[in-house]
Amino acid sequence: MAFTFAAFCYMLALLLTAALIFFAIWHIIAFDELKTDYKNPIDQCNTLNPLVLPEYLIHVFFCVMFLCAAEWLTLGLNMPLLSYHIWRYMSRPVMSGPGLYDPTTIMNADILAYCQKEGWCKLAFYLLSFFYYLYGMIYVLVSS
Amino acid sequence: YALFTCTYKCLYVSGDSSSTTTGSASPVPNSYEYVEGGGYSGTSLQSPPTSVPAKQAPPFGYNYPTMHPAYQQNPAPRPDSSPSHGGYNPPGYQPYSQVLTLLSSALGGLGGVSELEAETLRPVNLLQERNILPPKYTPPPEPNLSNDLRKVNCSPDTFRCTLTNIPQTQALLNKARLPLGLLLHPFRDLTQLPVITSNTIVRCRSCRTYINPFVSFLDQRRWKRNLCYRVNDVPDEFMYNPVTRSYGEPHKRPEVQNSTVEFIASSDYMLRPPQPAVYLFVLDVSHNAVESGYLNVFCQSLLDNLEKLPGDTRTRIGFVTFDSTVHFYNLQEGLSQPQMLVVSDIDDVFIPTHDNLLVNLKESKELVKDLLNALPGMFTHTRETQSALGPALQAAYKLMCPTGGRVSVFQTQLPTLGAGLLQSREDPNLRSSTKNVQHLGPATDFYKKLALDCSGQQIGVDLFLLSSQYSDLASLACVSKYSAGSVFYYPSFHHVHNTAQSQKFQKDLQRYLTRKIGFEAVMRIRCTKGLSIHTFHGNFFVRSTDLLSLANVNPDSGFAVQMSIEGSLADTSLACFQAALLYTSSKGKRRIRVHTLCLPVVSQLSEVFAGADIQAITCLLANMAIDRSISSSLSDARDALVNAVVDCLTAYRANGSNIQPSGLITPAALRLFPLYVLALLKQKALRTGTSTRLDERVFSMCELKCQPLLQIMRMAHPDLYRIDNMTDQAALHLNESVIPQPHLLQLTAEKLTREGAFLMDCGSVMFLWLGKCCNETFIRDVLGYPNYASLPSNMTEIPELQTMYSERTRAFISWLLESRTFHPAFHVVKDDTSAKTSFFQHLVEDRTESAFSYYEFLLHIQQQMSK
């Protein structure tokens, strides 16, 4: 059982994906609170916006790590999400601070529905990648 | 039942029906949505709305087809052509139209279609019938309800739906390809408003809807809601009818007899004691501002109207002026003259003294008058050219935080200093570009964030922009859009060089200062179960899925909402909508104004088409197009508008008529649809290819989103009348004066003649165009000049002469202006002056170098339909 750099990458990715799953669940709960009028949009956006960039940066971080570890398959599977993140951030509304969500437009039913769907899809993706990294880590640990 | 009846005493239900226990145990509400009462819990959000897809359209002007021969004729129409049966068909096509009328009357006899519907479903071939415009203003279509329901239904001026027959399912709505939405004017000035002062306001337990004329009383003591179908109890107090002083007839009470009522709200509806009226005026006093001379007009206007500001003894007023620094005025009661305090640290503006900047109007009236008299003179020699609008607004926010109220900002240039400074983004060379127009959205979110902060503290910000250069209205307008304020724009304002604008500013100020106002308001729109609202248009902040937060509410703003059908409406025959506006009046009373609209539900596509209200559809499409042009691009929005017409007419052809079309067939209810959409495409907001200044374009977009429906329709499709040969035929006799009723003319130069004088009513501006050979009697008797050549080129009003001609003309014009709140600017346009371009721009049926004529547009649509 050799402890290679790739195994280390997978382990780190496993931990970080747990954090990403947490973010995705937070998003889902936040939008549900908005929809059921439990919180007002300004406060909710102020809590959600600071979490956007950290999530994206964490994901970029382990893409870079997989690049360094030459794990091409894993990198390939993460590429669509990376490009989606880049597109999403480029087309965000004009705002001075970091973030994606504008309190004046977030209550629009289309945007709210879109964000909720996005939350669920990301949660599914992160869960699947969690198990994939687990498998990958064991594979790398065992096979070298 | 005792437990349930006592719920009427405690009116804070926090959004779901589980907390309907006794009042003392309820939590203290901490925000307005709880106070007003929740909507449905657990309604899931629905499928995407019937938004129009964007398609690629071929560029304009690629094909100039020849006109259909039947279309080409037309001398001026006979003045007494019968109005109700639409077109004047050319002789060669008599048989065709006869076939059509026979067929429609045959259809009318079958299947129980009412006469009204047969008329609205009568197929109209737009390529052949030239005169589709009704000769007079036609009221919106009446919903197909029983007579007593129709009588109590909400007035269409207040509450209007795009489809007066609501489709039963979303699938049916999609088949019709028409948008479903409501257009509201909830705080409109009303002459008659029943005010209810009972202790309990009767509302449904679960959905919190107010009692209205469309509930059904099951027996003496119970009533069934029409929105959620729950059965509720009638409280004891309700059994007594104060109007007829009788007992035991709850259905005769005024709440149940009128669909527009106002309730006096108890303290359950207040989060804090009702605020007093607080007015703050933030004035630009840079060199530019003083040059333009607006300060004189403003101070004089305010002095004249100081007594008439809505409010009571607690009304407060304050002034802030700014150029490169911010100035406050201490107006304390005992001072001999107002004291100016200058704050030059604009990066961190602070309030110099705690009180006396916003003073009680009654107590300090003399000081306020002194200040207004002195203000114009104080800054005549100023050399400051910078403008620190951002810091001034921040200061205003800090001043008004404790109470809330209204801030009126007067700005004459681009803000160049301090927070929120803006750059000039407009490229003058791109004004007439046919491609995308850039910079329609805000450059910075400073103003938006400020507006949201203000909205949270119940401060409404109104913006008056009086500049001649580019001032990035796209960013500045955000400060009013989200704090429920209004935007006023006077391009090229100058008190000497542009007297028309100056007069308009003065008249607008008078209306603005004296109109009714409501503070700390929230509005909620509820619909029958199965319908849901998904997008809101207008100046407010959407606080939750159906609650709108309006810091100020005024009688001149309109709102629009788009709806979708989530569930099926198959088990009900009536759909109801209720808009409830909770506000504090200027006298400190908490009121709730409730409007209820009831419409029938139908299951046939033809009935959906028959009930289409084309003006409401046009306004809703305008709102949607503006949203699309800001979020995606202007050309997408234009394509979407054209596709809306194409899709709708294709749907009609596919499902409705069984006549093989050789022309463009529409039902009579929708015959004006292509014309109105063409008019929208030629509006300043949406046009391409014609030189349009960016600020004017953005202002036109703001107007389309927040004006009430009638004003928007006049803006988009102005009314044109010939007034030099008005007869008394069909004239109205009101109050001993005879008001002639000339016919509405189509907006094409074909209808203008050199011998005539024509009046065009565009809502905010009116043009009187005189042909070169205009009747000299008319010029002499109505305008006061001996002949055409002696008319000055910038006349802005009709003199009051004692001739009969003049009286008739003035009677007609004042009748047109009767129910208007903002008086339009008036221009007399001679045929040979440069001002005539602004007149001719409004003739939407004509071809310009960058846009279709009406006929070409119809052919374009026909071509798209056959793809």
From TrEMBL, chain A:
Organism: Sinocyclocheilus anshuiensis
Places the protein is found: Membrane
Keyword Transmembrane on entry: yes
GO cellular component: membrane
Family: Belongs to the cornichon family.
Principal subcellular localisation of the protein: membrane
Name of the protein this chain belongs to: Protein cornichon homolog 1
Keywords for this protein: Membrane, Transmembrane, Transmembrane helix
Pfam families in the record: Cornichon
Membrane topology, record value: Multi-pass membrane protein
GO BP term, pick one: vesicle-mediated transport
UniProt-listed PROSITE patterns: CORNICHON
Positions of transmembrane segments: 7-29, 56-82, 123-142
Automatic annotation (TrEMBL), chain B:
Bilayer topology annotation: Peripheral membrane protein
Domain Gelsolin-like span(s) in chain numbering: 740-813
Domain named Sec23/Sec24 helical: residues: 613-713
Location of region: Disordered: 37-91
Compartment annotation: Cytoplasm, Cytosol; Cytoplasmic vesicle, COPII-coated vesicle membrane; Endoplasmic reticulum membrane
Domain Sec23/Sec24 beta-sandwich, residue spans: 518-602
Domain Zinc finger Sec23/Sec24-type: residue ranges: 201-238
Record key words, sorted: Cytoplasm, Cytoplasmic vesicle, Endoplasmic reticulum, ER-Golgi transport, Membrane, Metal-binding, Protein transport, Transport, Zinc
Molecular function in Gene Ontology: SNARE binding; zinc ion binding
GO process annotations (BP): COPII-coated vesicle cargo loading; intracellular protein transport
Stretches assigned to the Sec23/Sec24 trunk domain: 274-513
GO cellular component: COPII vesicle coat; cytosol; endoplasmic reticulum exit site; endoplasmic reticulum membrane
Family under the similarity heading: Belongs to the SEC23/SEC24 family. SEC24 subfamily.
Protein known as: Protein transport protein Sec24B-like
UniProt organism field: Sinocyclocheilus anshuiensis
Lineage: Eukaryota, Metazoa, Chordata, Craniata, Vertebrata
Underlying gene: LOC107704651
